Sequence to fold (367 residues):
Amino acid sequence: MSQPLVFRWGIISTGMIANVFVKDLLVDPKTRDVHDVVHKVTAIGSRSVTKAQEFIDSVLESDKASAKAYGSYAEVYADKDVDVIYVATPHTYHYENAMDAIKAKKHVLCEKPVTVNAAELRSLLAAAKENNVFFMEAMWTRFHPLSLEFKEISESGVLGLPIAMHADLSVDFGIKDLPKTHRILDPMLGGGPLLDLGPYPLVWAIMALFEHPSNKYSQPSISGSMVMTPITGVDSNTSFTLSFSKADLSAQAVLSCSINAAGLEPGATIRYEKGVIKIAGPLYCPQSFTVQYFEKGKVVREETRNFEYAGRGMHFQADEVARCVRDGKIESEVWSHKKYLLEMDIFDEVRRQGGYVLPPGVEKVTA
Ligand SMILES: NC(=O)c1ccc[n+]([C@@H]2O[C@H](COP(=O)([O-])OP(=O)(O)OC[C@H]3O[C@@H](n4cnc5c(N)ncnc54)[C@H](OP(=O)(O)O)[C@@H]3O)[C@@H](O)[C@H]2O)c1
Fold:
């Protein structure tokens, strides 16, 4: 067997999710039956070189000696020992960080929400194409083995067509006691649940309905509503409905997210003509789902599937990035550009209907 591809990552920022992602990169790929790629972290970029070095010392294991600590993000983009950049700054910096990386001809995996609006994303995708580099939103949930198996059942026809679904991701952040500068509350950092948590109920609607073959990638109509917190004026509770009726699918998704309520169980319920699939929460990395089969409206069979793997599950998307780059692709077929363009178009529309205007200067590109 040929040697696995060694794929070299440069990490932008040293925050919470960068920590989780890098730990997952270091999990031996063989534990998930991956033999064609291995991941290596070669550079950490922070606004402080001390923080970058502390990150290396505390998070990296075998890569510790060879990884470089940089006190700027620009030095990571310029490093010839870096193949791909992982952007893990707050959302309002994604555009500028990803654009700088693209212009340096680096491939990019960018945290969710990929940008703060659709215009920023369109500009990044155009730049990625022009510079012939791979670009993907870090929608790790889409690559979990659980999601792949969910889609197989959902699209097999065994339950008939999907009809309606509800999905929610809520986290009680204790916002009354949080500093107003925390990224979940600060409008300058794109605070509120829509941009932060909304991608997860939405990815289930994209998997269950938008990607369903009967939908033929038709766009849904969108209705949204937001409640703002008086603390900083960002949304605290947001609901949105997506109605799919332009192709052979007639189905509706009711989606919600909150930063001051505990999560719901199950996280998602997808109702079909002949059954239901219930996805356990939290929706960003569920560990099980239950399928109920109906006859004449009654449950006649039920099965639960459980999923376990080493790590938190952020490495499956990293394997996809490495393989796409190896194969000369600039886009993943699994989480393709059109899916997160839909995501950002939906968020723009929900913010428009909900009256959430980002402060001047936050959106680097507007339509
Ligand atoms: N995939 C997931 O499940 C998941 C989970 C949580 C968050 N996220 C996403 O990941 C991104 C980062 O979230 P996080 O929770 O990791 O945030 P965080 O802990 O606050 O870390 C963000 C990092 O960005 C850098 N940064 C640059 N400019 C900044 C600024 N003006 N204010 C604050 N930090 C700044 C800082 O690193 P340096 O000081 O080292 O430069 C900071 O440590 C967000 O877009 C979020 O939506 C994804």
